[in-house]
Amino acid sequence: MVKKKIRKLTPEFLINGYHFLWSFLGGLFYGFPGKKLTVIGVTGTNGKSTTVKLITEILKKSGKKVAVISSIELEVAGEKRENLMKMTMPGRGFIQKFLREAAKKECDAAVLEVTSEGIRQYRHKFLDFDVAIITNLAPEHIESHGSFENYKKAKGKFFKEVDRVHILNFDDEHVNYFNGFKANKKYGYGFKKTGEFDEKIEGKNLKANSEEVSFQVEGQSFRLPIPGEFNAYNGLAALSLAREMKIDSEVVREAFESIQGIPGRMEKVIDDGFTVFVDYAFTPNALDKVYTSIAEKMNPEKLIVVLGACGGGRDKWKRPVLGKIAAKFADEVIVTNEDPYDEDPEEIIRQVAKGAEEKARKITSRREAINKALSLAEDGDVVVITGKGSESWIQVKNGKKIPWDDREVVREEYKKIYVNQG
User: Fold this and answer.
1) pLDDT of 1 over the 70 cut
2) Most buried of the four, 46, 134, 162, 412, by CB within 10 Å?
């Protein structure tokens, strides 16, 4: 509370100066290690982690040593650890220290998720990015940035400062804004539209089912063994990066097919009569894409969804919107606790449930909500549990963290209902 009050009383230029200084000092102290690597930044509202994972596998398959910072994990030259910071883009010199470690271990490239909040706090400065990639743009972090326009401008600031290579989704409605920034080379990727780019990666014959997505580029076929039609766009973004780095398409194909799921991203946890997916989706756009993909490509007998919304004052506007989207697609909507922080979990649930109207079934305990969803499921149904993905805890008041894993809880509750009881 004290920290928030101080921030409100402090002029914006002083706050910006503070963050800029930290970024510069971090770079200075660690010797600006980004200059020794090919640094690739992936931004966007949804799909960043998946795109980072696909790029990483392509680079590894081509023989390069890679360093990675994503919301899922941290990796340097094959040494991985889970990202437990609840922070996609760390600050205070962390990234500079990380890149120095990568340079010392002779990594060829670093692949980083870049967030709007990180950009606003100058965490992207002095990293010497070579490539800027955007997956898509949709309303998110509106209350933090003050408006969608400010959110978009934060992403734009990243592209303005990376003038070497831009990789843009030409099917996204905001592509013209990002295409307005100068770069030495521009790639456009997508399935539907075209535009003015130095190179276009145009996907054709997109197909999707509960196991995979596949598509063709210039007559060559690619298969991603992860569900969700939207993941094809992440594949095209990664393919564009491979084209820039002159990596053969056969290497890309092998890298894609070697993917064995991405933690908490359309991760199939149960497939026994009915199917259960756990997904990180927590924005209206992401939720809509997940539900649309399941409804259109999997055609379940019933769609049963479990969802909530993050607390801490984050984007309260979207809570009823999430509920409304769930009610549009699902036969059963279970609204539950997610990460309330210092807010009242019951009030957050009420706000989400308001959007789902009479379809909403409110269950505060996330474990009980998952149990109920599994109990309702029958052969041919699909259960989707969103909001946390592979996260390792639930954030509650006073900074307390409760150990948690949606995937493990699904397995435990499934065993209680269907195994232990025969």
Assistant:
1) no
2) 134
Task: Work out the pLDDT band at 307, boundaries 50, 70, 90.
Answer: very high
pLDDT at 114 exceeding the cut of 50: yes
231-244 and 249-258 are packed helices; what angle lies between their axes, rounded to 10 degrees?
140
The pLDDT assigned to 273 comes to 94
